[in-house]
Recover the amino acids of this structure.
């Protein structure tokens, strides 16, 4: 579904991503794991069209996305949940969901998607009129995931969804990801949290200093202590 080939990203003289290639097949959860400064967010922004690589190709369902603006990528079926959540703090939970569903043409579909998201995270249903900025950090992350799901994406890209969250909330995020995999949604999960990623992903790319250091099935990475020593 998604293929990155030789992606290179620079910010002036700084090389953030160096010749990275990866692929995400339909129905898979693929993890991209690495420390701060490894280039993970630059790759996410390349997929979303926020950053333009100086070299390489981003291909989605066989279509080269070079020159395709962000809003058109959303229309193609790519939904990015950014690091930091990107919520409208002064708007209610429900209003944020409506903003996420803006690309939908059907009001009935939008209403269905809102209720589907409330079923995923019932606590949000209880707080549907509450301002997003007054939610706990964990509840805000739940809402950010739901906003990303509102547009009926084919590919959901999650950038650091566990960042700053308590273990119990991280467990809830993990359960949600496993449920989405059962529904055959394709996910690119970008994380520092190797334990979470290994528990939900089919395959994992390990990124360091802007390049792919290792790529394998999640169960084989979990079974390799030397790799995990560098991730945990």
């Amino acid at each position: 579904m998604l293929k990155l080939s030789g992606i290179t990203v620079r910010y002036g003289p700084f090389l953030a991503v160096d010749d990275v290639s990866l692929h995400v097949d339909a129905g898979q959860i693929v993890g991209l794991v690495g420390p701060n400064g490894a280039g993970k967010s630059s790759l996410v922004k390349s997929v979303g069209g926020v950053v333009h690589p100086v070299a390489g190709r981003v291909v989605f369902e066989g279509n080269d996305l070079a020159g395709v603006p962000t809003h058109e990528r959303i229309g193609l079926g790519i939904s990015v949940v950014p690091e930091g959540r990107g919520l409208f703090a002064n708007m209610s939970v429900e209003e944020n969901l409506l903003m996420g569903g803006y690309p939908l043409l059907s009001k009935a579909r939008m209403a269905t998607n809102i209720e589907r998201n409330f079923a995923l995270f019932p606590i949000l249903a209880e707080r549907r009129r509450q301002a997003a900025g007054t939610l706990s950090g964990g509840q805000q992350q739940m809402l950010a995931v739901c906003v990303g799901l509102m547009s009926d994406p084919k590919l959901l890209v999650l950038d650091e969804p566990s960042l700053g969250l308590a273990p119990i909330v991280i467990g809830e995020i993990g359960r949600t990801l496993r449920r989405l995999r059962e529904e055959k949604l394709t996910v690119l999960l970008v994380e520092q949290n190797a334990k979470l990623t290994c528990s939900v992903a089919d395959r994992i790319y390990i990124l360091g200093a802007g390049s792919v250091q290792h790529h394998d099935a999640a169960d084989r990475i979990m079974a390799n202590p030397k790799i995990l020593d560098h991730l945990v």
